[in-house]
Amino acid sequence: MSGLLEVVNLKKYFETRGGLLHAVDGVSFSVGQGKVLGVVGESGCGKSTLGRVILGIIDATGGQVIFEGEDITGIRGRKRAELQKKMQIIYQDPYSSLNPRMCVFDLIADPLQANHVYHDAKALGKRVLEAMDTVGLARNLAYSYPHELDGGRRQRIGIARALVLDPTFIVCDEPVSALDVSIQAQILNLLQDLQEQRRLTYIFVTHDLSVVKHISDDILVMYMGCMAEKCPADELFENPLHPYTQGLLASIPVPDVDYHREKIRIKGEITSPIEPKPGCRFAPRCAFADEKCQRETPVFREMGEGHFVACHRAGQEVV
Amino acid sequence: MSENEKGVGDGLGVVGLKRHSQIGDVLFRFRKHKVAVAGFFVVVLLAVVAAFAPALARYNPSAIDPVNALQFPSAEHWFGTDLFGRDTFSRILYGGRTSLLVALLGCLVSMVIGGTMGALAGYKGDKVDVALMRIIDIMVSVPGVLLAVCISALLGAGVWQTALAVSVGGIPQNALLLRSTIFGIRSQDYIEAAKTYGSRDLRVIVKHVLPNCMAPLIINVTLSLGANILMISGLSFIGLGVQPPTVEWGAMLNEGQTVIRQFWPMVVFPGMAIAISMLGFNLFGDGLRDALDPKQKH
Amino acid sequence: MGSVLEISDLCVEFHTQNGVAHAVNHVDLSIGEKRSVGLVGETGAGKTTTALSIMQLIDLRHGKYTSGRIDFRGDDLMKLKDTQLQKIRGKEISMIFQDPMTTLNPVIKVQDQIAESYRIHEKDSPAEALIRAKDMLEMVGIPAGRGEEYPHQFSGGMKQRVVIAMALTCNPQLLLADEPTTALDVTIQSQVLDMINDLKDRLGTSMLLITHDLGIVAETCDEVAIMYAGEIIEAGALRQIFKDFRHPYTDGLFNSIPSLTKKTHRLMPIPGLMPDPKQLPGGCHFHPRCPHAVDECKVAHPEMTEVEKGHLVRCLRCTEVLSR
Fold first, then answer.
1. Residue B64 lies in a domain
2. What CATH number labels C3-92+170-313?
3. With an 8 Å Cβ cutoff, are C17 and B3 in contact?
4. In this structure, what is the dihedral angle of CA atoms B248, B249, B255, B256, given to the nearest 10 degrees?
5. What residues pair up with A66 in beta bridges, in sequence order?
6. Nearest-CA distance from C16 to chain B in Å?
7. Residues C161, C192: contact at Cβ < 8 Å?
8. Mutate to test the interface with A, among C42, C155, C185, C241 (most CBs of A within 10 A)
9. Nearest residue to B252 (alpha-carbon basis) of B46, B52, B45, B82
10. Chain C residues with beta carbon closer than 8 angstroms to that of B3
11. In angstroms, what separates the C-alpha of A251 from chain C's closest C-alpha?
């Protein structure tokens, strides 16, 4: 199986005062061209770090990132700059991700200028205005500054900036989390349209399960730097196998008064994966954990068609 | 704002829209700040005085006239005369010239040296940061006055020595300011974004880091000009700064203090000159601080 | 069933350099004894301003109450003096804010922060107040021993528990919770919501829950009021709003949320943006974004219409469109 992007046993450890923080620990997956992989998890599970390691913003501690069949881990300089045109990122915070001293036009033009795509000002301008049209920014906002615009429009600038170099792969790092629901829906639709029209490949990082279900083909659930479960989006919601996924799903408040379900509450809180001991990282919070879970790190194994889970007890009994 | 697509033009030019620089916004916001505008005029006045002192002065500031010594303010001598009969008004004009020039020199030197150190420390981080910051720590631990004493002890007192003392004294502040500003900017997502779409280091610095440093830098220049004037006057007052025959406000105060109980004009006028210029720079700086913030509503 | 709080015709405006922002316009709201009311809306709808008005904490340098009564146990809070209000705030009515990090003082021990409001209001000895603080900690699920610690030693969820303990120390009649779980992770959010629900039932507290999340409302509230542009545009019992909503904005809100239970390929968001409270559109404030707007909507400002007992809608066409 090979896709546009393949990640093999990717690791990123950070040095902290308390010891090595295993932010991303042995993550492997592959995403096909034109597919959306949703990455979900709570804060501190390593999902944002994962996106940055894939893009080469942060160096990997171990493992490989294979893009279009080529190992791009640790590539620097000229070649990295070429790669970056194909791999882009959309940020969560539409405030800190835009240079406050640049107007909308300059913000979107900057990637083109940095890569010397056009030598003709007119062609450059045309391209920028087209990009503004694509993301639904009125052209008369070209010379406005970010602080004059609302969160939704700012996020549109961020999307236009990521798109203007015609990338094939985009990491969306919580792109709608800072927005109000009605604006969130507008931006989600935009991202979805762009993805379908241009056959873009997304890694969609978020903590919001309903958003990730809506937009993703496959979903990867992360817990404390490790993969907990990965399967097609619908399968995850119909048949979650990992106790963490089950608890996560049961924790989402559903806006439907007739929707009743069993309340599975996960006790305790997520901690930092600093110098983790062997054993399942979810065991301290897991209602089904036994002695083996404390001792042995579970293998990420295939339970059903395309359904992977890292749990000793998954499938053994009804959990 | 209307989403209406009317008024959208051809290829590049969007009809009816003009690129507006942020300088216009800054001026607009600054003008609303009445006190800051007053400060601005004080600063302009000071600059005019410094530039045109010879034309504005009615007497030679060093011309001794013992017959007319210790005159109170009159039509002849607006601010009175001093112990040697020199015209205080003319001396204040020339003194302003010295103060402002030395302050400006000190400010520029400390900004260039301190700013570079701070920028390097902030942008490079890690070992460069640690090394540079230890140097700054050492500099901070020596009080400014003590530094000035050392410099005048080594090199003698005078205009250049004073400028040197002020420059060295201002380095740590500039370095720390730029370092923390750049640290703040470096962690912003837009810097990461710029690198992600392939901007080289130099481009990141020129297009993204520097424009966002300018505001604190400009504010710091105005505020430290005021502070420098005060320091120069202070040094001259205790006899370590500018030496006669060069005229300087602090030195004038020093001369006046011997007769402070009998003859007030020799102390009051230089004192007021120092206070007003200090106030002017501070008000101007505060106004700029508000006006330069792009997030301010206008 | 009597009501604990009765707001009528509340208007709040803020004076800024560029004009007057009409943040809250003619809001009527009543909270029954032991009931939970959800106040739902997007950023800038006026939810927090409404809550702050109940506490009489609007900054009067910029803000102004232009009309309204807020009846709480027979007193109009708008007419009370500061000293009287201080007796009510924190004791009779308390508030939980969104961000637990900024609500707690970083240099005071957690138990002392909880004990403080008890000491002020109940005039108890410090020792008794401390005992009460420890009881409260146990009640929100934190071992009493941890009261000796400082806020930075607590995680986000724990801090919010402490904030809730503080708010409930004096057994208030009314709890105002402003997005109490927005800053928390979803598993922690469900723990905290469960706890709030449980404590509220046990102590018999009424609650006004401010949130943008309809899911939280569905799980915690008895009644719902939807706010848009400073007005309540639809209000009623939980079921009425969730199963029989009549206002196009409420419809838009529900359509904007990706569903967990149903399969939707495309969301149907409300077009456009929330209006600027300084320049509210004439007629119905929602008409520029409304798919069902007719010419009359542009001129006539709709009043609240009762479509069913207890179910009020501010829409001229509430009996035609969306009516099932």
1. no
2. 3.40.50.300
3. no
4. 160
5. A6, A71
6. 10
7. yes
8. C185
9. B82
10. 272
11. 5
With cut-offs at 50, 70 and 90, classify the pLDDT of residue B69.
confident
Q: What residue segments make up the domains of chain C, in order of their start?
A: 3-92+170-313
Q: Give dist(CA C147, CA C133) in Å, integer.
A: 8
- pLDDT for res C322: 73
Distance CA A65, CA A12 (A): 12
CB contact under 8 A, A100 and B5: no
Q: Among residues A58, A54, A117, which one has the least CA distance to residue A87?
A: A54
Q: Does position B11 have pLDDT exceeding 50, yes or no?
A: no
The fold for domain A5-86+167-309 equals Rossmann fold (3.40.50)
pLDDT in tens, B76-131: 888 888 888 888 888 989 988 888 899 999 999 999 999 889 988 988 878 889 99
From B186, B164, B187, B171, select the one nearest B220 (Cα to Cα).
Answer: B171
Rg (CA), chain A: 21
Interface probe for A, chosen from C256, C266, C274 (most Cβ of A below 10 Å), is C256
pLDDT in tens, chain A (319 residues): 468 999 999 999 998 888 899 999 999 999 999 999 999 998 888 999 999 999 998 899 999 999 998 899 888 878 888 888 899 999 988 888 999 989 999 999 999 999 888 888 888 999 999 999 999 998 888 888 898 888 899 999 999 999 999 999 999 999 998 888 889 999 999 999 999 999 999 999 999 998 999 999 999 999 999 999 999 999 999 899 999 999 999 888 888 888 777 777 788 887 788 888 888 999 988 888 888 888 889 999 998 888 999 998 887 754 4
Q: Virtual CA dihedral for A11, A233, C252, C304, nearest 10 degrees?
A: -100
CA distance B289 to B282: 10
**Would strands C223-228 and C36-40 be described as parallel, antiparallel, or unpaired?**
parallel
Which sign, positive or negative, has the C-alpha torsion B63, B67, B70, B74? negative
Q: Which of B241, B260, B261 is nearest to B251 (CA)?
A: B241
Between CA A247 and CA A252 the distance in angstroms is 9
**Range scoring the smallest mean pLDDT among A106-120, B1-15, B77-91, C239-253:** B1-15
Sorted by where each begins, the domain ranges of chain A are 5-86+167-309, 100-166
Q: Do C293 and C277 contact (CB within 8 A), yes or no? A: no
CA distances from C133 to A55, A285, B27, B45, C122 (A): 49, 28, 54, 63, 13
- How many residues are present in chain B? 298
- Angstrom distances, CA of residue C8 to CA of A244, C68, C70: 46, 6, 6
In the sheet with A5-16, reading across from the earlier edge strand, the strands are A19-31, A5-16, A62-67, A70-71
Give the Cα separation of C185 and A124 in Å (integer): 43
| B188 alpha-carbon distance from chain centroid | 29
Rounded Cα gap, residues C163 and C180, in angstroms: 10
A213 touches chain C (CB under 8 A): yes
Give the length of chain A.
319
Q: What is the DSSP letter of C18?
A: T
Tokens linked to A172: 């969306």
The answer, yes or no, to whether residue C323 has pLDDT greater than 70, is no
Residue that the structure tokens 């003590």 belong to: B146
Q: Which two tokens stand for residue B202?
A: 């130099």
* B202 occurs within a structural domain: yes
Q: Which domain holds residue B266?
A: 32-54+84-291
DSSP letter assigned to residue B295: T
Length of chain C: 324
- The pLDDT of residue B177 is 92
Closest-CA distance, C319 to chain A, in angstroms, reads 23
CB-neighbour burial class of residue A303 (10 A; exposed 0-12, middle 13-18, buried 19+): middle
CATH number of the structural domain spanning residue B267: 1.10.3720.10
Q: Would you state the pLDDT for residue A166?
A: 92
